[in-house]
């Protein structure tokens, strides 16, 4: 029996060595990331040998949006199933609160940090402390900018999210068939979230030819990211901006035909502004896009208040992220499918991009109910 154990231990040690060797990667920028991962490994390997359980700090941005509640819950469950101890914290969109939470995680001996930042560039100093303490860091959904202290990034194809939203509008408005012109207003996400820029880029690359040809008219004249961005993804700010656009530009009986919205929460605010201005669902109500497939958004899609959303299965994201946590803790290499897109100004962070899916009235049953994300009762209730 002892002999079998010794053989198993030798095989395990050899496997770890091979996986660690496999970590030596490509260009200089990704190599920095791999070394950061490896740096974290040295400290944690000792912990593993002593049989102590690993502590994982999970820092999430806010509970005001359904998706982050699901993200936190999924991560906690999956990590605990593996025997890890989880410190899950929400910063309620307060940058300093998130810095403090991460500092506490470091002080309390976290072995790995998983972070979805409130402000992608505001964590540079606290992440340097994590690096100095040999704690590997994984960026969750939102890229951590301006730092070399990040090993891996688990996210969705963010550019594709924007493409899906804009492609929906192009098809639903019949722009490819030469229909138009249509009045379309544009919204972007939070300027301190790197994802927002990619959503915008994907959407604008898709809409540009129709704006240029005059088939899409943005009557407000606001077509650049900065004018359309909504700080911290606030529903109220989106509602106010839409109210201002409606009263300032559409007062003479001209109607909005569609609104590009990059997040369900913004779509609710936009819908409230439209209701306030007298628009009615079913009577020339504009097409409104969204993102996250929140339960409310699916209900609004069924009732016709929202035209589409982009479903990002947080269960899949959590799975990918957990595999990254395991990799940095054991010195192995997680599955990565992108080593070129996510340059955080210091390094190109090795990433796994999950696939986003456009959801409309026609496919919501297949996409969100059949896969068990929501039950039919939840959606109907
Ligand atoms: C996420 C989106 C989300 C938005 C607002 C982004 O970073 O990728 O899924 O809608 O934040 O919370």
What does this structure look like?
The chain is α/β, with parallel strands linked by helices and 381 residues long. Helices cover 49% and strands 12% of the residues. It has helices spanning 2-22, 28-49, 66-81, 95-107, 124-132, 158-173, 194-213, 225-228, 235-249, 264-276, 295-303, 314-330, 364-369, 376-380, and strands at residues 55-60, 85-90, 112-115, 137-140, 152-156, 182-186, 216-217, 258-260, 287-288, 309-311, 351-354, 357-359. The chain has a six-stranded parallel sheet with strand order 2-1-3-4-5-11, sandwiched between helices. The protein has a four-stranded parallel sheet with strand order 7-6-8-9, sandwiched between helices. Strands 10-12 form a two-stranded antiparallel sheet. Helix 7 (194-213) links the parallel strand 6 and strand 7 (216-217). Helix 3 (66-81) packs across helix 12, helix 4 (95-107) runs parallel beside helix 5 (124-132) and helix 9 (235-249) packs parallel to helix 10 (264-276). The longest helix is centred in the first third of the chain and has 22 residues, at 28-49. The model is unreliable at 1-51 (pLDDT under 50). Beta-D-glucopyranose (BGC) is lined by residues 65, 67, 141-142, 189, 193, 195, 233, 263, 291-292, 312. Beta-D-glucopyranose binds at residues 65, 67, 141-142, 189, 193, 195, 233, 263, 291-292, 312.
Helix fraction by DSSP (H/I, runs of at least 4): 40-55%
Average predicted local confidence, pLDDT: 89
Strand content: 5-15%
Which spans have pLDDT < 50 for at least 5 consecutive residues? 1-51
Q: What small ligands are held by the chains?
A: beta-D-glucopyranose
Structure classification = alpha/beta
Tell me the number of strands: 12
Gross morphology is elongated
What is the H/E string? Answer: HHEHEHEHEEHEHEHHEHEHEHEEHH
What gyration radius follows from the Cα positions, in whole Å? 23 Å
Number of helices: 14
Distance between the termini: 58 Å
Biggest sheet descriptor: 6 strands, parallel
Kindly report the spatial arrangement of strands forming the biggest sheet: 2-1-3-4-5-11
